[in-house]
Amino acid sequence: MKRVxxxxxxxxxxxxxxxxxxxxxxxxxxxEYLTTPLGIDVLSPRLSWKLPVGVDVQKAYQLIxxxxxxxxxxxxxxxxxxxxVWASDVLxxxxxxAIQPYTRYYWKVCVWDNDNIYTxxxxxxxxxxxxxxxxxxxxISDTHDIRLKPAAYFRKxxxxxxxxxxxxxxxxxxGLYELYINGSRIGDHRxxxxxxxxxxxxxxxxxxxxxxxxxxxxxxxxxxGNGWYNHQSTAVWNFDQAPWRGRPKFCMDIRIIYDNxxxxxxxxxxxxKTSLSPVVFNSIYTAEHxxxxxxxxxxxxxxFDDKKWKNASCTFAPSNLIVSQQMHPxxxxxxxxxxxxxxxxxxxxxxxxxxxxxGVSELTVKGKPxxxxxxxxxxxxxxxxxxxxxxxDYHYRPTDDSDPFQTDIFILGGTSEETFxxxxxxxxxxxxxxxxxxxxxxxxxxxxxxxxxxxxxVAGRISSSDAxxxxxxxxxxxxxxxxxxxxxxxCPQREKxxxxxxxxxAIETGLYNYDGITIYEKxxxxxxxxxxxxxxxPAIIPTGGWGYHWGNGVDWTSxxxxxxxxxxxxxxxxxxxxxxxxxxxxxxxxxxxTYPSGVTDWxxxxxxxxxxxxxxxxxxxxxxxxxxxxLAKAAKLLNKQQDYDKYSxxxxxxxxxxNARFLNEETGIYCSGSQTELSAPLYWGIVPESLKPLVARNxxxxxxxxxxxDVGLLGSKTILNALSMNGYADLAYQLASKDTYPSWGWxxxxxxxxxxxxxxxxxxxxxxxxxxxxxxISAWYYKALGGIFPDPAMPGFKHIILKPNFVTGLDTFxxxxxxxxxxxxxxxxxxxxxxxxxxxxxxxxxATLFLGGNYAVKCKEAKLVDLSKEKEGIVLATGTYHFEIKxx
Length: 888
Hints:
It is a single chain. By secondary structure, the chain is α+β, with helices and mostly antiparallel strands. It folds into five domains: 2-127, Immunoglobulin-like (Sandwich); 132-327, Sandwich (Jelly Rolls); 331-454, Galactose-binding domain-like (Jelly Rolls); 474-785, Glycosyltransferase; 799-887, Maltose phosphorylase, domain 3 (Sandwich), CATH 2.60.420.10. The protein contains 17 helices and 47 strands. The strands form ten sheets. Strands 21, 22, 26, 27, 28, 29, 32, 33, 34 and 35 form a ten-stranded mixed sheet that branches. Strands 1, 3, 5, 6, 8, 9 and 10 form a seven-stranded mixed sheet that branches. It has a six-stranded antiparallel sheet with strand order 15-14-17-12-20-23, with no helix packed on it. The longest helix has 22 residues, at 616-637. GO terms for molecular function: alpha-L-rhamnosidase activity. It is an enzyme of class 3 (hydrolase).
């Protein structure tokens, strides 16, 4: 009875609150960082929201979750009512009745500040299969022959005899797939499901097919591609030797709820029919070949005659773990038209897209039956206007000439105008050379291209008075997105590998600019799948086996710790740290066992330096410290006191060992004093506090003496940051804004629209023109110029640290970042000897502004801002502030 009364009182109070104060809508309601997701299969999904602009602080919240939308709208939830919780959290894990499969849960949130209540509209999330035992279908394929090249069609005719209320398709695939119902492709995703270690984790997707099915005759069609599951191309990475390799297969349950409430499953089994398709070859690594003469019109529609098709074969599941794919999907995000077409002959044309992208081209052409058209994709062209792949095909090891690199082959059916695009492949390119075995007439409208990538929401924006800065930022973003395909990769052409070092160097660039948590959480699950029992990780993740014996030193595979920690800082969400804690611990324990002195040379070192060669022993030992320090901080956060004590001591031991081994305390020089050897200890907190000014001065003097930047991959993370964090922001900006070799601007000056793999631009091999490895500069813009930092003590930008640098040579700058609490803006403009600085602190958060230098500060909102303790930081509550800053 008390529980009933309590619930009743909550409802009454809820409605009284609605009447008592003004009501505004909450926004950005998400479940597991997705809007109205289908197929959720976690037991305690995370629910999040944002307050309206201008709300100072959230004092309390109430979450209401139930299976009836009308009841939830009235404030009644039959699954969970959190009650009024006095907290400012905007991310809360579901804690109600046990989540059930195949169920739509409606939810809303109410928030109180000092005077008002703010409510959201009712939204929902929907659960999926949730438990392996709930699958009804069998895994099916067409053969066990991994060498068979044509992709397989599958179809099933079904008769729907009653009116449908709701229908879902749950499809798990080893390989890639396209799903069709009654001739129409379902959804707008590309390259589903994402790459995993297939023998340890298989992903399924959920599709709402309510509007696609109809009463009466229907047909379901599935086209399977190889993806990374059945890799038939050969390269140095041994993709074709993966232990899971097999002919693509799938399992699908179609769950129909009729208007009368009856539930029916239509599932995969031996009654499904299969045939080979016109996709006569497909490789995620190289390209796709399509023979239009082998098309079977209507293969995925009702009434198609499939008597010549054979029955599908039942087979085993690829793994024992089948989980829902819950992340922002790969899509055709942007369509591009050529900026130039050059007709080389009646059977050869060159199309220039004007910029480097990852994705596919699409050709529309008319010609004789059997005409073979080749679409060669490249980043460069020669003086003869022919594509030049020498910089990207270096690691390809073809066994014959049947699988040319980045070259689609389209054989015309000759029926009429025909259109081709690859379904199960993507490439990195700016140019497409089209050649044909018979003359064809093409125009500049014959070809277009699609920029494809994981469709993560934009979270950041940069603008400035420096056109070069703006171009570098855009190029960095283009490289980041070109290398986001369900996991972070190094390049979209010659490798497509999940290189760990590239990813942790670029993690802040990714998180300042994009809302990428769903991709990183998936990728860290891949880490768990490939980690050896002793804690060792491979250099590329996922992997079919390559990377355990080379490239996987501590300076690369520190992703296991660095990425979860950055997710925590940017989102204020500790779930990934909790999930990965044992993996980080196992990794650090391996390092401690193998390198008890606290010093290690296990790693690749400062990869692709310009001139200098920095100590690999120093940089690897620093990453040993970073991982151990993160483990200690995670232990404290997760209330693991014994671990905190143990790993705090170990971290201090490693730091002490590094300084004893590599630091000359009299001169303030580490090792030989290269830019990386000085900036890495500064940035990562190795340098003793008393020696920081000396080491920083040595770094600045070294840069001045060298006359340019001289770092490799690891140093590219630290050089600009170490300078700007230690009083040399002007010098850092000089390096960042150079347009002479070596620099980011040098690439842009020479026509780059993405970042390169090498500081040199004249390489003839092994120099991808679309790499993210040197992409830290974009994050540096937010940190050094915008001054926007998360506060580890109040993560997720609950409290914002602001440390802008008004550098010489730049007149205006603005950085904005959409945090879990709303948009942060840090903007400044130089005018008549003054700096006009504007800050926006989002609702329910606060900030502390630190202005380095000898400044006189005024604020138009003076009554709200205490400037008396300026050197200790100016504390800012929610709102927009306008400062006038002068040199004293």
